[in-house]
Amino acid sequence: MELTLTQPDDWHLHLRDGDLLQAVAPHSANHFGRAVVMPNLKPPITTTAAAIAYRESILKAVSAGSNFTPLMTLYLTDTTSPDEIKLARRGGVVFAVKLYPAGATTNSQDGVTDLFGKCLPVLEEMVEQNMPLLVHGEVTDSNVDVFDREKVFINTVLQPLIQRLPRLKVVMEHITTMDAVRFVESGKEGFLAATVTPQHLLLNRNALFQGGLQPHNYCLPVLKREIHRQAIVSAVTSGSKRFFLGTDSAPHERQRKECPCGCAGIYNAPVALSLYAKVFEEAGALNKLEAFTSFNGPDFYGLPRNNSKIKLMKTTWKVPESFSFSFGDIIPMLAGETLQWQPGFS
């Protein structure tokens, strides 16, 4: 058995820089036609000029002859200017702006501290330029339980934002709760959407602790209860156009995960398509997989769908235990496990 799909895109990807970029970029380029690349480097990508330079680094890191296209983003700060948004649109390589609440996740210390007080002119210019806002949807108040931070963010930030700027295109990234599902489904189609990761479709928070602490299942937003996982699966396999593929693949060298204060992030690029197929097959919805992987994202962004095809073959294969490089090892999601779907090319 095999499936032929329009080549998917990854609408939320971390490629890092330096040696890590060189190591992981080919894994994404092998499977995806395009990817929205996150800007949370050190220093962050806050200008169009920096985004153009980062794009060139990415293209050099993928194999010769690859058609992989990185879609760049800007990192929103308290000091981002409306003129930078105009420049980004004119430049033609920046496709969105990323909102990280300061301190929410990896390399987010330069993020926004007061969205409405300091960023409103920029958000208004984004409406004029039809530039989407990509949101890491968690509050950072230490008094809010880590498992409630997405829900509280929806109520205190996203709902007021959409009421104030109803024509702003917003993508709620890597949703993890039924609250996020309901929020996205309640919005205006074409203006509010969500990306969904393999880990939040397959794992619940038990996966962090089964058999001992599991650092390679630790990501932000953190995995949630089973009832939330089921709600997300139901949403993405329903055929709704509001949800699309975004792996949030986030590589870290092994020693930065297996240490007293391990980094958040799951490296899933090599297995993501296999895992999405598993989820849709188990839901009896393989006929809706292609829309989720290949149609809903470009349609929301107003971009053409890919012309190339990819095959998913129903054949068992074992996920590598690790990927070894000169700087160390990267452990993929579900390392050492056997999967039932394997990507290839038409």
TrEMBL record:
<dbReference type="GO" id="GO:0046872">
    <property type="term" value="F:metal ion binding"/>
</dbReference>
<keyword id="KW-0862">Zinc</keyword>
<dbReference type="GO" id="GO:0009507">
    <property type="term" value="C:chloroplast"/>
</dbReference>
<dbReference type="GO" id="GO:0044205">
    <property type="term" value="P:'de novo' UMP biosynthetic process"/>
</dbReference>
<dbReference type="GO" id="GO:0004151">
    <property type="term" value="F:dihydroorotase activity"/>
</dbReference>
<dbReference type="GO" id="GO:0006207">
    <property type="term" value="P:'de novo' pyrimidine nucleobase biosynthetic process"/>
</dbReference>
<feature type="domain" description="Amidohydrolase-related">
    <location>
        <begin position="10"/>
        <end position="311"/>
    </location>
</feature>
<dbReference type="InterPro" id="IPR002195">
    <property type="entry name" value="Dihydroorotase_CS"/>
</dbReference>
<dbReference type="InterPro" id="IPR004721">
    <property type="entry name" value="DHOdimr"/>
</dbReference>
<keyword id="KW-0665">Pyrimidine biosynthesis</keyword>
<keyword id="KW-0479">Metal-binding</keyword>
<comment type="pathway">
    <text>Pyrimidine metabolism; UMP biosynthesis via de novo pathway; (S)-dihydroorotate from bicarbonate: step 3/3.</text>
</comment>
<comment type="similarity">
    <text>Belongs to the metallo-dependent hydrolases superfamily. DHOase family. Class II DHOase subfamily.</text>
</comment>
<dbReference type="InterPro" id="IPR032466">
    <property type="entry name" value="Metal_Hydrolase"/>
</dbReference>
<dbReference type="InterPro" id="IPR006680">
    <property type="entry name" value="Amidohydro-rel"/>
</dbReference>
<dbReference type="Pfam" id="PF01979">
    <property type="entry name" value="Amidohydro_1"/>
</dbReference>
<protein>
    <recommendedName>
        <fullName>Dihydroorotase, mitochondrial</fullName>
        <ecNumber>3.5.2.3</ecNumber>
    </recommendedName>
</protein>
<keyword id="KW-0378">Hydrolase</keyword>
